[in-house]
Records
---
Amino acid sequence: MNLAARPWVASYAPGVAASFDVPEGTLPDLLEDSVRTYGRATALEFFGATTTYLELGDAVGRAAAGLRSLGVTAGDRVALVLPNCPQHIIAFYAVLRLGAIAVEHNPLYTDRELRHQFEDHGAKVAIVWDRVAPRVQRLPADIPVTSVVTVDLTRALPVSRRLALRLPVRRTREAREALTTTEKPTGPRKVVPWRELLRHRLLPPKHPRPGAADTAVLQYTSGTTGVPKGAVLTHRNLLANAAQGAAWVPGLEAGRETVYAVLPMFHAYGLTLCLTFAMSIGAKLVLFPRFDVELVLDAARKSPPTFLPAVPPIYERLVAGAAERGVDLRSIRFAISGAMNLPQSTVKTWEAATGGYLIEGYGLTETSPIAAGNPIGPTRRPGTVGVPFPGTDVRIVDPEDPARDRAPGEAGELLIRGPQVFQGYWRRPDETQAALLDGGWFRTGDIVSMDDEYFLTIVDRIKELIITGGFNVAPTEVEDALRSHPGVSDAAVVGLPRDGGGEDVAAVVVLDPDTVLDVNALRSHCRGVLASYKIPRTIIQAKDLPRSQIGKILRREVRTQLLDNGPRAEGKGDSP
């Protein structure tokens, strides 16, 4: 294959340029350009409350000054543990303006999951949802967090809605408790309400700025080993991927699009499509702290979306809900699906309901995350993940010897090279060396095939991560949780395909003698150490597990047996 020619550009949609130059500058520059260009336009909408680009830029400058007063300097890590909300976007860009590094976390993580990541990145300041603050305060004293900035989501609501939440009615009380807490975090760390950061004067324009090659974000991924590690993403990586996304969409109208943030922005997919791409094109970003069909459809009546990045189950639920409630979705011209397989039936139903395109893309945290996508036009091929993005090169190689390219049409491991490819894993040189080959090629661990027009199809995964609901689940982590139960001697965890795309977490356990399988007790035990989406939906008992000659559990055989025989072993747990 002539890499210099990038032959796949012939399959790009009309209007998508074959060449691509990475924009100069940094992510703060990206936002400041949009503030200058789209100043009085709405940047953010949250339950009807709006923020203009000028107001957003002002809040970022004040928050940056507030973080500086807490001792944040260039190169420091700042932990963000927030759902989608205006404060999340302000905090993200304020951290970056100081030259510090934003570290995104899932606010649903358990104490143990948070502890591992905080031990790894060593942040001294954490900006957290107030409901999460007690968990951060419980982190061991040797973790160097000194200040916890607490965010009350209700303060970003319209005044009328905020007042309504005070009514002594059960429904409003439940709504208030879902957004905030009255619990005061107690512990050794200084607590600073978010509003205090915004009381500072603007950060002086002459304050030192980051460079394009500086690290902007640590995004944790389970990678190929099952051990969470931080992917190092620079300003250039993220700026490039936002620009690649904008270049990919013909007919995109800068300053006039409305993007719905139903994907969590602590996930690489949501981070790029919402935190960077949407801001780069001067879009109105409508924020949802969690996906709820009713909330999204209510918003669609008032601020019709034009661009919706999501995962297949969201598209399916929105089409069904819109039909039931009589909500028109035809404003949505562009929809991009990722993180799991997109069924062709979902494409057909969605495009019939909206008249727009629904295309599938492919990426990984390590590629910021998007590396390939289906053209947004008639040349798309449902069932594939499309062709490499502008400025991106790919190779398909022998997984056992990545120096050997596969013959055309032959499946192999996908290698990616491009401006969006990460710099390595945070403080993990061995894993970095294994993932990044000479010449800047990243080993994805995915087995793919490429047809004669260069469309990629995912065949299998070398790595054994389970993708459920768009999130990665490391089998090792779930197995460790199961083995820590006093009645479990061993466990194997795999992903089983789910109708409509994605996978369910399934576990096969070997119990101690005289122990009776209690599925509910095992799930309850797991809830103490794992986020809810990691808890096995199916738990089966077996007398033993298939192993290699050195005793390693063969997860592939476990998965094959489950698929071949069905859940008919010694017992099956009901879905939670």
Note: Residues 50-210 form a domain with the Rossmann fold fold (CATH 3.40.50.980).
---
Amino acid sequence: MSYRNRVALLILADSLIVVCSIFAGRFILDTYITFEDTAILTSSITLLVFHHVFASWYKLYMKAWEYASVNELLAIFKSVTLSIVATAIVQEVVFHNILIRILLVTWLLHLFFIIGSRLSWRLFRDTYFEGKKDKKRTLIVGAGAAGVMVARQLSKSRDSELNPVIFIDDDTKKHHLQVMGLPVAGTIKDIHRCVASYKVEHIVIAIPSLSTKRLNEIYLECSATQIKTQMIPKIEDLMMGKVSVNHVRDVKVEDLLGRDPIELDMESISESITGETILVTGAGGSIGSEICRQVTKFSPKKLVLLGHGENSIYTIEMELRNKYPNGPEFVTEIADIQDKDKMVSVFGKHKPNVVYHAAAHKHVPLMERNPEEAVKNNVIGTKNVAEAADLAGVNTFVMVSSDKAVNPTNVMGATKKAAEMIVQYMGTISQTKFVAVRFGNVLGSRGSVIPLFKKQIAQGGPVTVTHPDMIRYFMTIPEASRLVIQAGSLARGGEIFVLDMGEPVKIVDLAKNVIKLSGYTEEDIEIKYTGIRPGEKLFEELLNSDEVHDKQVYPKIYIGKTANLYINEIQDVISNLASLPTDQLRDSLLGIANHNVKVKHEVVSS
């Protein structure tokens, strides 16, 4: 129905209701009171006019009544009451008498039929056109504001396959009550019982402010029922406007293994980024591209996307241009950080204020087999970028490092440790503030185990895990990127910033979660142990014993003490790179990284 036809129909219906209400009131009271026809006719016309006046004032003809709530009902109450009061005033002025009883009955009938006319179609539609018999009986965890919104949305949506039948909430004050006509049947511990009692076929977790720990506990209870479980977005996604509260999605492994998000110091970050030129190396990678997304929100003057792979740089450039058409100037530079002259040229041309150095080789087994490439990219490349930043007068240089740089047993970790030493050394001889940011494994990044697990599950298994006791620290890509950006605003020069990573996670538990979230059981998908790969450790560390500093410089962010810097030894490795055998190169790198330089330096010099 068009808007005009809809308004015309409502005006006609309201007119009939108003006239019928006052004459019905007269008919009801006619036995007891005699009224003059003139008074009744005048009152009906007056009431009709004032009803339309106040209905227009409160926009009763512009509301979508299929979404009616308390606010809409309150608008009807005000409109009807004021029209009755206005009619009473006219009666007093014209007839010097107020027909109190008839106006009271008219008010009751008027209010009842106006509300009934607005809600009748919604009730009729919900009853006969929603097809609830074909929908899955759904349990909603959380009877708060978000849970009510989800229940309302699912109930009125024709496209949804879910029909809410029950709430679960830990607030005992809500137990034995009904919310949206649905019973609140118990606490989280009662989920298994309620699933059986109410024949539940689907579960939705509707608490956007859940901590990761609590989400784990709830999901554990839900998964024990073998019922498909979904959730609404987390509070930070809702606040940023990425999604709405009724956007139900599958629970992801990132939700279970990620941690509560870090609150950023927006003011200090804005001071260092807003209106400035920012350069990101490795801008096409998983961490680099997310840094670009986060940085763009702070309105820099120019964002330079530097990377070696043209396809990945093109992808992030197009994404940012489409999402921020009126945003900063986006400049792409296809360049290899191993090319020092090119780095000096790019930095000299753009004169960035802040540099985020995310370009690196990070696959442990590949770097074990190709240590010289790890040196070229992670060590020489970092040295080139750092020296170019110094020459260009960059204010802050932030290097993305890894927990594998602590007591490394592999080439990749050793080269990242050497890169940290270079960055810390540059901080002692340059006006630029050089810092490194160290964190653990990043969920969903290139090289992460999760994409591998998902691929193996899609192929029917088995899921391969190197060792049953293998543990790692995990964080999400956005969290890692925010840490890098926050570190830049905290930098004074020479620091190694470390995130409080929480409790480490067993890789086998991660595999089990991915299998479960993919809709399978461990009986369906086998977990196979393949043995520790060359260079791997059973656990990782975030700080070496001589770097430990207990004080937090920011919530959940620690700073490591400066360790010994073996710049001459690193330069020896770089100078002799072409002539060093692979084994000697690996031993030399590990000697430098583990502060056992005396023996290893003799190897390099021999």
Note: Residues 3-128 form one domain.
---
Amino acid sequence: MKIRYGGDYNPEQWPKEVWEEDHRLFDAAHIDTLTVGVFTWALTQPGPDVYDFSTLDAIIERAAAAGRRICLATGTGAHPAWLAKAHPEVTRTDFEGRRHRYGQRHNSCPSSPVFRRMSAGIARRMAARYAGHEAIVAWHVGNEYGGACYCDLCAAAFREWLRERYSTLEALNAAWYTRFWSHTFTDWDEIEPPSALTEHWRGPDHTAFQGITLDYLRFMSDAMLTNFRDEKAAIRSADPVTPVTTNFMGLYRPIDYHRWAADLDFVSWDNYPPDDRSAARMALAHDLMRGIKDGQPFWLMEQTPSVTACRDVNPLKRPGVMRLWSWQAVAHGADAVLFFQMRAGRGASEKYHGAVIGHAGRADTRVFREVTALGSELHSLGPVTLGARTPARVALLFDWDSWWALEISDGPSRLVRYLDVVTAYHRALWQLGADVDVIPVTAALDRYDVVVAPALHMIKDGLADRLAGVARRGGTVVTTFLSGRVDEDDNAFPADVPGPLSPLLGIRVDEWDAREATYVNPVTMDGSTFESRLLFELVIAQGAEVVGTYGADFYAGTAAVTRNTFGSGHAWYVGAGLAQDGVDHVVRTVLTRHGLLGPCADLPDVETAVRVTPDGDRLLFVLNHSASPVDLPPACTGTDLLSGHPVRTLGPNGVAVFRHSPAAGSPEIAGG
């Protein structure tokens, strides 16, 4: 047993003599796991009642003969052309009301009965054919679910979804505040999906009725979950044991991944950061994916070994970066490190996407050498990290409802973006070396000393009481501007801001000032001054201690940051859009109180993360994201178990993994 290593393999695009060369190179690179069949629906079902599994049979048998394991996809990430021709209603209708014709991928209406029946049908046939095959270790349903549909079928399904949610039109009208602009509904069939033709007047985030738009986002996420459930049920009809997953996309706004948690046997996701300077953002995404199933290890289903091919510019991963980012995934909970793609395709939109094996099939490229070196390293490490958990005492709350509600709101500021706020607070925790669980607002908070809830716009599910419980027993809660504003239906609380959080925070907010991005109001805390931008809440302390004050405008000298003593603990409120150094200051103060600063907290761009194995061994990962070598503090030095050499300095893009066995009493290192 070891970390699974390999990735997305599409040999159906190549003649069989190439397959032989591929497997020779896979052996050299220690590739042991292949994801196959992701886009094979048109191949395995070339007509309505025609099935041909001969090519897929050959792919699976060749991989199995080499001793490799397979994550087998159902192939339904793109429907075949014949299906769209026979049933045009399976294609999506977009936000502008245009019915799509056949093309691209992610072009299937999730509410189409034909699509649901046919996608489940091919999954059922595949399961019946391949269930019990010794090489198949997981099922991969669909691919990167996403994209909304606004067709008549979705409208009808939305109305049924609303009936189940609200039961009565009276309850729906109250939730959506429909007496505004004479929108009261007297029949379910009067309800239209919110689109450019109905409630949206300037794009997807500008809606006249936030309630209906929020519910449509929830509905569409659930509709695609229903597609996943259809296929999983079909698989389970023949294979009751092999785990089933689908590949998520990390910080992806359209789908509430927390709603999918119970249906996934394990989480997997595709890591394609927007640039090559996003180490903290990737850490947030890894932590979010790990938190979906309460800390269970996940699979890194896709990453590029070199470049992507879907953006205006696609930076090449510098030497050592692929290894560094792969180990970062392991540090945050990955039990598999997989690539897209194993061999580069010759045509279409991904022909220039990075691959382990390029078009020429060479083994002497830098990329292949680095992939081979990492494969050797993972092979030598063996099962050390498998099943290890992150022992976090810090939680960061992440809430798709708050994300959606904040960004479809007509105020206070269109410039404040949920993910920017969350990322700033997670980045501070990451840089300061705190192990963090990124969890839903419904999760239990009992095991955490610190709970950080940036831009917690919506309060639901008894969250205010559970946050109060954290502080009451001696913990610390940190939240920010735009928190405690609305209820589950996106209606403002009939109370002082921040609504149900007011008793915990010991404040009220009477006014707020939203300004252009160039406007700066300085905030002074503990003798230091930090910039703040975009949003400035006028906070009135009602028992809370004023920690930071504004330095400009008519509210100069008033509270910008407060700390309230609640029970045995504290609750912080940051009412200003602090720059990153201001956020870092608040977070450092909180972590210091609880003794949670990491061993490399004062080393910029050096990341630490801890995992604890099922046997109780403590693994400390140290990753140097800088272009310069760094001398490690004594807590992060020892002997490299792979090379046998001592490690006291970590080179550019360097990685070390310390292992401390409780019985041994001293640290060891794996990596270097």
Note: The first helix runs from residue 16 to 28.
